[in-house]
Specification:
97 residues
Length: 97
């Protein structure tokens, strides 16, 4: 039973990471007027990288509520775990940069 719970949490975690990466890619590739490399360089020099990561994490809230609506609480926990990891990574990036 414990392995099933861990697998479900991992599925939620993986879903959240994929959603964030996909959203980041969509934003940089289709919303930005620059190429992918130029946008990343502008984000690094203009200290906008954290804002891009934050925007890419927003769809995870939709995923979280979908999992809750479907009564998949362990997957929702995985989404929260991924969000906490993103927040800690962003805080460390802002602190040391």
């Amino acid at each position: 039973m414990e392995n099933v719970i861990k697998i479900e949490v991992f599925k939620g975690f993986l879903t959240a990471i994929i959603a964030a990466v996909f959203t980041f890619y969509l934003f940089v590739e289709h919303v930005s007027a620059y190429t992918f490399e130029e946008t990343i360089q502008i984000a690094k020099t203009g200290q906008l990288f954290g804002k891009l990561i934050t925007l890419s994490a927003l769809p995870n809230m939709i995923v979280f509520f979908i999992f809750l609506k479907k009564k998949q609480e362990y997957r929702a926990r995985g989404v929260l775990l991924a969000l906490f990891l993103m927040v800690l990574t962003l805080a460390a990036y802002q602190l040391f940069n």
